[in-house]
TrEMBL record, chain C:
UniProt keyword annotation of Transmembrane present: yes
Cellular location(s): Cell inner membrane; Membrane
Similarity comment: Belongs to the CcmC/CycZ/HelC family.
InterPro entries: Cyt_c_assembly, Cyt_c_biogenesis_CcmC, Cyt_c_biogenesis_CcsA/CcmC
TM region(s), chain numbering: 20-40, 60-82, 94-116, 128-148, 160-179, 204-224
Keyword tags: Cell inner membrane, Cell membrane, Cytochrome c-type biogenesis, Membrane, Transmembrane, Transmembrane helix, Transport
Domain of life: Bacteria
Higher taxonomy: Bacteria, Pseudomonadati, Pseudomonadota, Alphaproteobacteria, Rhodobacterales
Protein name: Heme exporter protein C
Membrane topology: Multi-pass membrane protein
Organism: Pararhodobacter zhoushanensis
Domain Cytochrome c assembly protein, chain residue ranges per copy: 5-184
Length: 218, 205, 244
């Protein structure tokens, strides 16, 4: 399992692996929004939590369609399915690698973008914490969506259509936590709910995703 | 160690292809599957490897004792030859990849990225993977595609070595590997007759 | 007494639905016609909301079926996954577009009602938002069905999506409540004592609700029959192909 994690991380960092694409997208979004909304710092400060969370969500979505599709194309998925590692473990590890190359860097970069968007000072710690707690759920839900669409020729668009509605609770709790912190309120409740979604997704979705993968392989 | 298949039926896309197939492969034996295109060789091999369910029949050997190799080699273009092979070795709980590299004549290429290999070299790397799985039954689908005559001989020697250690091989191939001891199983007699009650869609007729 | 599972056989299902579908369709038409006539022409206007409230005779039954259609898909998906009855999977497939349409009707009638009442066509109210998200779940479900060629693979994958989607749809409902407390009035019908509604409203509303249930049954039966016929022609073609 560790070998698989190392391989996926290594692939992401090698040329053409797509590491940094999500971060770049995240940055561009944080630049485009003020250009569209106007430079008023008060307005930006109010919408910053929502923009940062929506940006993180879309950045996660960018690399999802490659999660299983590449392994499916080159036959690795067949070989992994016949290997001693349970397919549920394969799903969990690949989702973890996806999180390590998208969600985690996003969480670390988010404060910088918060400055660009004039996020109130009280919210930075909550912003990072909420992203660290919430983005694993995004990767896990995304892995389920990717497992459903792995056999399809043009699965990317369908994947977004399937996954985005399921991202909604994570987005609400994540953005609410940051908004509350920005207003000086206690963000504990949404943070706990966010952690709950991540825990639940990590516990249950590998089984659903592995089931979908087995169906797509047969 | 023995693979015993009893009265097996398998289907592709809801259409039964093979039925009533029985055979055994014991340790030290090689069995070559022959049949025209579309006769269900790939379907049979995937069914044995546990990638798709059989319609009926029994397979005595669990998929955990087999390793499957098909047209796609499962190689990552940006990883080197050694990295690719080490990954599959680690997945199967093995460490040492040197014997496999030597056996498939890949030692000189070990540090090259897989994308710079020729089709035949990629195939050799894909087959070297068999050696690092540590599994006794090799299920091979057209293993010699894009191999030149020398490489085919090299691979035949590897298979022979595997058989000598008590392993077994089940392969679908059109090329004669030069394995004199291999038995041949013609699939044509087991072509599924129709209409059969095996396919799901028949319930709608 | 024949077991319910007998109707998992497509032939028996076709025989049953052959009379059940027209009967439920006619009953649905009659109940909805009577309910709407009663509600629109015989029921007095509300002292606060005027005539606009009468849209509930469409809005509430549509909203009811929007949720129940998903619940039915959930049950039929489970039956498919556990017992592999093809009719069950096809009924789930048929229910998808119908449920989506019901959701759309509920959203549109809600907007038409909301405009004079709240002064806006749309508000990001938790109920409205939940319904919009439910609609997105329906769209995804329908899209997955249409994207996959092999019918059994499609049935399996959409069934898993339905199961997982149900969990997230319920989560979304609570997330929406957490997010915004909303304008929408509470449930109009209540079994608790001290009901807020007069029989001149409840009567037509109940009629329309039963009518919509029957309408849904008729539509699902019709859709399932179409799907079964499509599968039958597919099976025939497969057999021809195999013989050739």
């Amino acid at each position: 399992m560790i070998a698989l994690l190392i391989r996926d991380l290594r692939l992401a960092f090698r040329a053409g692996g797509g590491f940094g694409l999500g971060l770049g997208f995240f940055l561009i979004l944080a630049v485009l929004v003020p250009l569209g909304v106007g430079p008023d710092p008060v307005t930006l400060g109010i919408i910053a939590p929502g923009i940062l969370w929506v940006g993180a969500l879309l950045a996660c979505l960018l690399s999802l369609d490659r999660l299983f599709a590449l392994d499916h194309e080159d036959g690795s998925l067949d070989l992994l399915a016949t290997s001693p590692i349970p397919l549920e473990g394969v799903v969990a590890v690949k989702a973890l690698a996806h999180w390590g190359t998208t969600g985690l860097p996003l969480a670390l970069a988010a404060p910088v973008l918060g400055i660009l968007l004039n996020l109130p000072g009280a919210a930075y710690a909550t912003l990072m914490l909420s992203l660290i707690l919430g983005t694993p759920a995004l990767s896990m839900i995304g892995a389920f969506g990717a497992a459903l669409t792995v056999g399809l020729k043009r699965g990317g668009l369908l994947l977004s259509l399937l996954v985005l509605p399921m991202y909604m609770p994570t987005l609400v709790f994540g953005a609410q936590a940051v908004t509350r912190a920005a207003q000086g309120l206690d963000p504990t409740t949404p943070l706990v709910l966010l952690a709950g979604i991540t825990a639940g997704s990590t516990a249950l979705l590998p089984f659903a995703a592995a089931f979908a993968l087995r169906i797509n392989l047969r | 160690m023995e693979l015993r298949v009893t009265d097996l039926a398998c289907a592709r896309g809801g259409l039964p292809l093979i039925e009533g197939l029985s055979f055994t492969v014991a340790g030290g034996e090689a069995l070559v599957l022959r049949g025209p295109n579309g006769s269900g060789k790939t379907t049979l091999l995937r069914t044995l490897a546990g990638l798709q369910p059989a319609l009926s029949g029994e397979i005595s050997c669990p998929p955990e004792q087999m390793t499957y190799a098909a047209h796609a080699d499962g190689l990552k273009a940006t990883l080197s030859v050694a990295e690719n092979l080490s990954f599959w070795a680690a997945i199967h709980g093995q460490r040492d990849i040197a014997p496999a590299l030597d056996a498939m004549n890949l030692a000189d290429l070990a540090e090259r990225p897989a994308q710079s290999l020729s089709a035949g070299q990629k195939r050799r790397l894909g087959l070297a993977r068999l050696l690092v799985t540590g599994r006794w039954l090799w299920v091979l689908d057209e293993p010699t595609v894009s191999l030149d005559a020398d490489s085919v001989a090299l691979f035949a020697a590897v298979v022979r070595g595997h058989l000598a250690q008590g392993g077994a091989a089940l392969m679908a191939t059109h090329i004669d590997l030069g394995l004199a001891e291999a038995r041949v199983l013609e699939l044509a007699p087991y072509k599924a007759g129709l209409p059969a009650d095996l396919g799901f869609d028949e319930a709608f007729l | 007494m024949a077991s319910l599972w007998e109707y998992a056989n497509p032939v028996k299902f076709m025989r049953l639905s052959n009379w059940l579908m027209p009967v439920s369709a006619v009953l649905a038409a009659a109940l909805i016609a009577v309910g709407l006539y009663w509600g629109f022409f015989l029921t007095p206007d509300d002292y606060r909301q005027g005539a606009t409230i009468k849209i509930i005779f469409l809005h509430v039954p549509a909203a009811l079926m929007a949720i129940n259609a998903w619940a039915m898909m959930l049950v039929t998906s489970l039956i498919w996954l556990i017992r592999r009855h093809h009719v069950s999977a096809l009924a789930a497939k048929a229910a998808g577009p119908i449920g989506a349409t019901m959701t759309l009707i509920a959203l549109i009638t809600g907007a038409i009602w909301g405009q004079p009442m709240w002064g806006t066509w749309w508000a990001w109210d938790p109920r409205l938002t939940s319904f919009l998200i439910l609609f997105l779940f329906y769209v995804g479900y329908i899209a997955l069905w249409s994207a996959i060629e092999d019918p059994d693979t499609a049935a399996d994958l959409t069934a898993v999506l339905c199961l997982v989607g149900s969990v997230f749809a319920v989560l979304s409902r609570y997330a929406a409540l957490f997010w915004n407390q909303g304008l929408h009035q509470g449930a109009s019908l209540s079994v608790a004592p001290g009901t807020r509604m007069d029989w001149s409203y409840k009567g037509p509303l109940y009629l329309c609700m039963i009518g919509f249930v029957l309408l849904f049954v008729a539509l699902v039966l019709a859709g399932t029959r179409t799907e079964i016929r499509a599968r039958r022609s597919r099976a025939l073609m497969t057999r021809e192909r195999a013989r050739a």
